[in-house]
Amino acid sequence: MMSIETSLRDPKLPPELEYRIFEIAALARPTGIPRLMLVARRVKYWIEPLLYRVVLFHSPSDEHSELGLPAFTQDSLIKMSDAKRQHIRHLFLDVLSKDHGLESWILSCTGLTNLFAYLYCTPEKIRLLSGLSGIHYLTIEASALSG
Questions:
Q1: 3-state class (DSSP) for residue 11
Q2: Burial class (CB in 10 A: 0-12, 13-18, 19+), 86
Q3: Running DSSP on this structure, what letter comes out for residue 90?
Q4: Residues 14-32: pLDDT tens digits?
Q5: pLDDT, tens digit, for every residue of 29-42?
Q6: Is the pLDDT of residue 96 over 60?
Q7: Greatest CA span in the chain, whole angstroms?
Q8: Contact residues for 140 (Cβ-Cβ < 8 A; gap 6+)
Q9: Which segment, 11-20, 57-66, 77-86, 111-120, is predicted with the most confidence on average?
Q10: Which residues contact 98 (CB under 8 A, 6 or more apart)?
Q11: Which letter does DSSP use for residue 117 in this model?
């Protein structure tokens, strides 16, 4: 067991530097963020928003491990709190289906700037997506625009 005196002499990093180290580690390997969040509460507070910065949604049968991004299932997205949704900047819905129930969920992602939606698009869904005010890049099926 370490004595208190020994631990007081151990080098301490300034919080700003410690934050940057964990931020760089999280951005370098996004799939490792859940393990990094276990280090300490302050680390979880610092890097948890980075876990939700890029959200890749796929069906359970798809394999996207080569991208190096954490993948989310429909259940995990629906259960995600509003506080976590505000950190989503880039959303990739790589599933073609007629009804996921995710269209209304997308509207609650207030920080969204990039949306790739490989969804079964209808003119009604296009109107729904027009409610996203912060989108800079939108990728959808082109046939949906022709009505």
A1: coil
A2: middle
A3: E
A4: 999 999 999 999 999 998 9
A5: 998 999 999 999 99
A6: no
A7: 73
A8: 115, 117, 118, 119, 121, 126, 129
A9: 11-20
A10: 120
A11: E
Give the separation between CA 84 and CA 79, rounded to whole angstroms.
10
Token pair listed for 116: 């790739």
Domain ranges of the chain: 1-51, 52-147
Q: Can you give the pTM of this predicted structure?
A: 0.73
Reading the block at residue 52, the tokens are: 């939700």
Query: Would you state the structure tokens that stand for residue 64, as one six-digit string?
Result: 């996207």
Mean pLDDT across 49-71:
72
Cα–Cα dist 43/18, whole Å? 9
Provide the β-strand partners of residue 72.
57
pLDDT tens digits for 106-117? Answer: 777 888 899 887
* SS3 state at 14: coil
Interatomic CA distance for residues 123 and 2, integer angstroms: 66
Element at 100 (helix H, strand E): none
Residue 103 in 3-state DSSP? helix
Tokens found for residue 10: 């151990």
